[in-house]
């Protein structure tokens, strides 16, 4: 049995359309009235958008219903699907906790409530029926005030039992005027032992080399091999991994066809830069991680050897995977050792 690691999945975009629509029908009269028929909702929710900013607006639809009361409902179904349908052994969930707090509260009150959100997500992710190793990545946001982003990083530092890293999200085109702020926050995080990733070099408008030295992984990063391949040797030397999410780039209008990703993989493999294949927003895309693997294979973007290398890289770069080996190696060692009791049961 193959077991996989998912390093880049947003909590807001992880809810599959059917689960979200059913929640509207049962718990939210306004949204149920807006989307009375499921096929129409699925078409609206999963259709491609023209730009990354337009695509990210969909997150606000989910964020408004992912309240502290509703989060366990969504996370249980997320973990169940990841275990049963995707064979995940490891999952990192990323989100901005501030955006799950009540909007009517003051900024200070919402900052105080973020800790409760982290605890709810952490406890709900530990579903005994579906044993997956999980951890959280807390996202700073390009459109939130500096005080909130600072509080998010400090919260991540104070919850090592639930949080493994920080990220910056909100559309990489919007970082430009705040680079010094994000550099300072990443530097603070690294000085406190916190691991780091960041949405960077996803689009042609989001290429900021100033942030690269502070990132252990790069969220997307596809513009590096496409537009700035001269940076790849340094990424390899620093053992930085790209989190490549194939379906995303067509949902956001960033790429026109899948063949463009072949350049990304070929140049990274040639330079010795690791890639972890991820889903990003499995619900918005209505796809699961094994589909991303199969799609890359059937379109000859990668071969099986390269797929295995990417799967191994995902566990190697996982921020909170507790073992030195991926689960396939652990299972092999277990299966190759005949348990003592088996000798008496099977003469």
Briefly, what is this?
The protein is 48% helix and 13% strand. It has helices spanning 17-27, 29-34, 38-46, 52-63, 71-86, 107-124, 146-158, 179-191, 223-227, 232-237, 248-251, 259-271, 282-285, 289-298, 304-316, 327-335, 340-345, and strands at 4-10, 88-95, 133-141, 163-169, 195-196, 199-200, 217-220, 241-244, 275-277.
Structure description:
Belongs to the metallo-dependent hydrolases superfamily. Adenosine and AMP deaminases family. This is adenosine deaminase. It is an enzyme of class 3 (hydrolase). Its cofactor is Zn(2+). Residues 5-320 form the Adenosine deaminase domain. With 347 residues, the chain is of the alpha/beta class. It has one domain: TIM Barrel. 48% of the residues lie in helices and 13% in strands. The chain has 17 helices and nine strands. The protein has helices at residues 17-27, 29-34, 38-46, 52-63, 71-86, 107-124, 146-158, 179-191, 223-227, 232-237, 248-251, 259-271, 282-285, 289-298, 304-316, 327-335, 340-345; strands at residues 4-10, 88-95, 133-141, 163-169, 195-196, 199-200, 217-220, 241-244, 275-277. The strands form two sheets. The protein has a five-stranded parallel beta sheet with strand order 1-2-3-4-5. Strands 6-7-8-9 form a four-stranded parallel beta sheet. Helix 8 (179-191) links the parallel strand 4 and strand 5 (195-196). Helix 5 (71-86) runs parallel beside helix 6 (107-124) and helix 7 runs parallel beside helix 8 (179-191). The protein starts with a strand and ends with a helix.
């Amino acid at each position: 049995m193959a077991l996989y690691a998912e390093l880049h999945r947003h909590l807001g975009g992880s809810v599959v359309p059917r689960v979200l629509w059913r929640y509207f029908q049962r718990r939210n009269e306004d949204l149920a009235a807006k989307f009375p028929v499921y096929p129409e909702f699925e078409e609206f929710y999963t259709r491609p958008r023209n730009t990354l900013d337009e695509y990210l607006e969909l997150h606000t639809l989910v964020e408004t219903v992912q309240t502290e009361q509703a989060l366990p409902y969504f996370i249980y179904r997320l973990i169940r699907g990841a275990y049963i349908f995707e064979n995940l052994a490891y999952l990192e969930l990323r989100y901005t906790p501030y955006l799950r707090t009540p909007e009517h509260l003051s900024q200070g009150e919402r900052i105080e409530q973020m800790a409760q959100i982290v605890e709810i997500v952490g406890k709900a992710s530990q579903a005994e029926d579906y044993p997956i190793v999980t951890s959280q990545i807390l996202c700073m946001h390009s459109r939130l005030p500096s005080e909130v982003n600072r509080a998010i990083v400090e919260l991540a530092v104070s919850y090592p039992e639930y949080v493994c890293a920080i990220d910056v999200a909100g559309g990489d085109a919007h970082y430009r005027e705040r680079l010094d702020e994000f550099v300072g926050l990443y530097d603070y995080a690294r000085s406190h032992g916190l691991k780091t990733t960041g949405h960077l070099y996803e689009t042609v408008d989001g290429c900021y080399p100033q942030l690269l030295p502070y990132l252990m992984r790069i969220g997307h990063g596809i513009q590096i091999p496409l537009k700035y391949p001269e940076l790849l040797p340094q990424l390899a030397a620093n053992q930085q991994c790209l989190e490549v999410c194939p379906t995303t780039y067509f949902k956001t209008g960033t790429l026109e066809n899948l063949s463009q990703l072949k350049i990304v993989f070929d140049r990274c493999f040639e330079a010795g830069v690791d890639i972890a294949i991820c889903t990003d927003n499995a619900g918005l895309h209505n796809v699961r991680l094994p589909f991303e693997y199969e799609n890359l294979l059937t379109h000859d973007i990668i071969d099986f050897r390269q797929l295995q290398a990417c799967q191994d890289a995902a566990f190697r770069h996982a921020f909170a995977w507790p073992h030195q080996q991926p689960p396939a190696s652990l299972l092999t060692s277990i299966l190759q050792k005949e348990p003592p009791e088996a000798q008496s049961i099977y003469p």
